[in-house]
Amino acid sequence: MDIYEDERTVSRADLAAWLRQVASQVEAGQVFYGAAGAVAVADQVHCELEIEQEGKDEYSIEIEFSWVNPAAEGEKPAAAEGEKADAEKAAATEADEEPETESSATA
């Protein structure tokens, strides 16, 4: 699902300034887009850089970043929470029980 897309032709200097602006926003943890949109950037980001020659005299550079929504990272599905609670309960029960030991006598 696309949230926002912008395409235009700019000077090399304007492109560099835009990349610096995006880099500053990524570093701050939030990238702004459109009139009032923003997206939070996670602490860990997957990055891809692709450089292609598309013809004899045409080149392209594609930069892609992807991450999991930082707000969603803390959320866990109910089933996973239930499994964790079951595991913690089982561990607590085992800790309360006296372990069985075998003694051996040496002659």
TrEMBL record:
Stretches for region Disordered: 72-107
Compositional bias of kind Basic and acidic residues: 73-91
Domain Amphi-Trp: 3-75
Name listed for the protein in its UniProt record: Amphi-Trp domain-containing protein
Domain of life: Bacteria
